[in-house]
């Protein structure tokens, strides 16, 4: 079931991605030669006007083939003949559709919520060392932690894991005003719970409120923004050495995570909601990653588009698009090699267990 869900998820995300390119190209007057779902030999195809619509037999990938994508066409309706801003919109439309798909999945998840925890301090446990005249107070809404915005309650623990230590910079909203708590010492202590157990925590609780329609919509957006930030933080950790290849997952690793997500769900409904939440995370991740300024990705193509447009405006000469095609081809080779390495690592981890 995990494999089937992963295939279904990636198929949907690839479909909506290519659909974004397709719709933007059609609206921009660019000729689309083929719109295909999956790869390999066609099991169904139909020519409608200038476009061949096909479903192929290998359930991986898909594509929207536009006339003259690589600059090898003299057609006035080719991709390279379109105005630069139209090409920009066509290239960005795929990632935009993935982001929208992520929002829709989040909306389905949030629609079932009855309550939300807010980043607002509700109460302090006896013996807590964080409250007081120069500390936190009941009703404080935590706005920032170490320079990062707090959108939802879960951001607090997430950012503390990214910025470990006992001294943090906080910004809170108190009685309608912002209060800055720089170099604020936050230490965990042992607290005896009502059932007699001992927990090691900070000693305060966040406010829980009813999930109104407006609050649900805000949480959909907050979670989407949070996912974008998670991608940024992950890239920062990779570049700084805080994370390595062992922390990177490919399709095989994602299937494993899907399996763990469903196994941890108590009911079928919980499993579905958890899978939708996971799917939204993947969708928004793909949207952001696809816009990175790397060759072969839409982000790299957008950067090349802006650079060549600027160079052509200055020099008055049209640059040969074949050189950009070579760059993206090389980038695709590097990307495929990287994916192969990550997949091998994921399979190796499975066999080690």
Relevant terms:
353 residues, alpha+beta, four-stranded antiparallel β-sheet, two-stranded antiparallel ribbon, 8 helices, 23% strand
Nearest-integer average pLDDT: 88
| Uncertain residue ranges | none
What's the β-strand tally?
10
Q: What distance lies between the first and last C-alpha atoms, to the nearest angstrom?
A: 21 Å
User: What is the helix tally?
Assistant: 8
Order of SSEs: HEEHEEEHEEEEEHHHHH
Helix content: 40-55%
Main sheet specs: 4 strands, antiparallel
Tell me what portion of residues adopts beta-strand conformation.
15-25%
Q: Roughly how many Å is the radius of gyration?
A: 25 Å
Q: What structural class do helix, strand and pairing data support?
A: alpha+beta
**Shape summary:** elongated
Largest beta sheet: strand ordering: 5-4-6-7
What does this structure look like?
This protein has 353 residues and is of the alpha+beta class. Helix content is 50%, strand content 23%. It contains 8 helices and 10 strands. The protein has helices at 2-27, 84-111, 154-162, 213-240, 251-263, 268-290, 298-315, 321-352, and strands at residues 32-48, 51-66, 115-124, 141-145, 148-149, 167-174, 177-185, 189-192, 198-201, 204-210. The strands form 4 sheets. The protein has a 4-stranded antiparallel sheet with strand order 5-4-6-7, with helices on one face. Strands 1-2 form a two-stranded antiparallel sheet. Strand 4 and strand 5 (148-149) form a beta hairpin. Helix 1 (2-27) packs antiparallel against helix 2, helix 2 packs antiparallel against helix 6 (268-290) and helix 4 (213-240) packs across helix 6 (268-290).
